[in-house]
Amino acid sequence: MFEIFGIPSQALFGQLLLGLINGSFYALLSLGLAVIFGMLNIINFTHGAQYMMGAFTAYLLLQYLGLNYWVALVIVPILIGATGIVIERLFLKRLQQLDHLYGLILTFGLALIIEGLFRNYYGSSGQPYAVPEALQGGHNLGFMFLPNYRAWVIAFSLVVCFATWFAIERTRLGSYLRAATENPTLVRAFGINVPRMVTLTYGFGVGLAALAGVMAAPIYNVSPQMGSDLIIVVFAVVVIGGMGSIMGAIVTGFALGIVEGLTKVFFPEASNTVIFAIMIIVLLIRPAGLFGRSA
Amino acid sequence: MATTDTAPLIRVYRETVWSLAVAAAILVAFLVVAPFVLYPIFVMKALCFALFACAFNLLIGYVGLVSFGHALYFGWASYLCAYAAKSWGLPPELALLTGTATAAVLGLIAGGLAIRRQGIYFAMITLALAQMMYLLALRVKLTGGEDGIQAVPRGHLFGVFDLSNETIMYAVVVVIVLAAFFLIYRVINSPFGEVLKAIRENEQRAISLGYKTERYKLVAFVLSATLAGLAGSLKALVFQLASLTDVHWNMSGEVVLITLVGGLGTIFGPVVGAFFIIALENYLAPFGQWVLVIQGAIFVVCVLVFRRGIVGELANRLRVQL
Asked: Which positions in chain A touch B244 (Cβ < 8 Å)?
């Protein structure tokens, strides 16, 4: 063990690691928000609740059906993504011609309903979710102890983020998606089913949130309100990065996680407000956001 | 020629003035009778929320700005008012002024930041700033953390009126809230208010007509925050309590709910919405967490099928402006 700026390396890198973990969740969630916003022009306030549903579903699958983490990692995003598709078909579809404020209010209402229902049945206290067996333990890297599960979360979310980026920016399907974001009418004229694409996009964004929830379950306790506070921080992340760019959302998410981790080491009392403070600075210097094309 | 062209407009104007006057008369009559039929504390609570929602409606209904963080001004004004009355021992009029001024300053800062982005970002910024100040409220000594500021003395207004007397407190709340309503009504119908509505309809056009829309938006924002602060300060005196509930994002959501149920962009909507929602919450209090679910369901129903709200729907049926 050694010290950096009078801080033991264990503490510094430990917090950095936690920062990266938080950053993975910021990146996954803001990515989902950006994808949804691009197609639907709606800020999905339900995103936090859907992340919580992901974690809870993983917990329930294990508790009642004995399905382990790896199964949950595959099934849960599909299940919750399907509920997203239902929400889009039932509600969001009707708001297309309306002011975007109605989308915000409706998804806020849905978030309240979901959180309220889960609180009714499971109370506000957290439920523990064990780390999967294959990823228990960790490695001593000399300057810090690296738990396997945390390394996995960071690596896997990086993979998911870049796969999403690749799918949207480098594939044919992604090019349809980007085209439909720019001009849906024209894309429809080419014979592409844009409404179905919109529905699937929402389902995909929601699935990403649920995936983040499953990954978060072994790290944080699974509780009904785990999403609501997180989503507000993610909004700040989105304001900082701007929603115009997929890569921007990923980079901003991870970077802000690291900044938050470092703040925890040097100014612990400011750690939960630092992202908001950065948002203020960005608004003052670059109002369009770091990666934003226009206000 | 001119007279025949303007005649229908004048008729509409007269009808509007009449319908508003009738509605105002009904409201005043209701407020006079209410303490004899309902609990005065309930009416006072509803009035505080009505003022809060009117302040919020000024932004969402007349400028088209969606602030999702109005709890910031309501809650912090309530803290400062309570603190001024309790720890500094200020009389109620100065305590109210302290709370309201705090909200004005916070509104100036937060509004100045938030209007740098438009549309959906505006809502997210106001929410994030409010959350930041909520986290601050958890930390600083002034707010009393989880306990809040309890047993706030109501004191004597202007050294004469003893506010610990429930009837006098009620009268003071009614007078202040009605005065604030009137102020909002005058603002909406002033040339300044017309520019705000022009910004709501088409900001680019307003800019091209030479209006510095950012300044108009900021003034409207500060005004809204200030009045929300007045509502929060009054609530602190009425309940003799300032707590974390008032700065939490739930409160920001609640004011959206009240305004939406009553009718966005209507003058009396927020008042009706406040009485409706506060009454509903009173009845639902024993059901605990279901309140959250029901609030959420009301949001969804309002957005899908009831976008005009109670007063908006009524006005539409009667073909008048309310």
From this structure: none
Partner B contacted by A104 (CB < 8 A): yes
Which helix (H) or strand (E) element contains residue B78?
helix B71-86
Report the C-alpha gap between B277 and B42 in whole angstroms. Answer: 12
Contacts of B259 in chain A (CB under 8 A): none
HSE, CB side, 13 Å, CA atoms: give it for residue B194: 3
With beta carbons under 8 A apart, name residues in chain A contacting B256: 105, 108
Q: Do B297 and A228 touch (CB under 8 A)?
A: no
Average pLDDT, chain A: 88
Query: Over the stretch B198-239, which tens digit does the pLDDT of each residue have?
Result: 998 888 899 999 999 999 999 999 999 999 999 999 999 999
pLDDT > 60? residue A264: yes
Domain locations in chain A as residue ranges: 3-113+148-285
Across residues A54-75, what is the average pLDDT? 91
In angstroms, what CA-CA distances link B304 with A58, A95, A103, A105, B299? 32, 8, 10, 10, 9
Rounded (to 5) percent helix, strand, coil in chain A: 75, 5, 20
Question: B97 at the A interface (CB within 8 A)?
Answer: no
Those of residues 195-234 in A touching chain B at CB distance below 8 A are 228-229, 232-233
Banded pLDDT at A1 (limits 50, 70, 90): low
Contacts of B64 in chain A (CB under 8 A): 99
- Residue B20's pLDDT is what? 85
Q: Does A28 touch chain B (CB under 8 A)?
A: no
Q: What percent of chain B clears pLDDT 70, i.e. is strictly above it? A: 98
User: Is B137 part of the contact surface with chain A (CB cutoff 8 Å)?
Assistant: no
The number of angstroms, rounded, from the C-alpha of B322 to the middle of its chain's C-alpha atoms is 17
SS3 B7: helix
Comparing alpha-carbon positions, the chain A residue that sits nearest to B139 is: A269
Q: Is pLDDT at B248 greater than 80 in this prediction? A: yes
Determine the structural domain holding residue B235 and report its residue range.
2-318
Query: What is the pLDDT, as a whole number, of residue B4?
Result: 58
Nearest-CB residue to A91 (from B119, B292, B304): B304
Query: Which SS3 state, helix, strand or coil, does residue B296 take?
Result: helix
The reply to whether residue A102 touches residue B307, judged by beta carbons under 8 angstroms, is yes
How many independent structural domains does chain B possess? 1
Cα gap A46→A84, rounded to integer Å: 10
The amino acid that residue A10 corresponds to is Q
Spatial distance between the Cα atoms of A94 and A40, rounded to a whole number of angstroms = 11
Contact B300 A113 (CB under 8 A): yes
**Which of the given ranges, A279-288, B129-138, B150-159, has the highest pLDDT on average?**
B129-138
Virtual torsion, Cα B226, B229, B230, B231, nearest 10 deg: 130
Here the CATH number for the domain that contains residue B42 is: 1.10.3470
pLDDT given for residue A213 in this prediction: 94
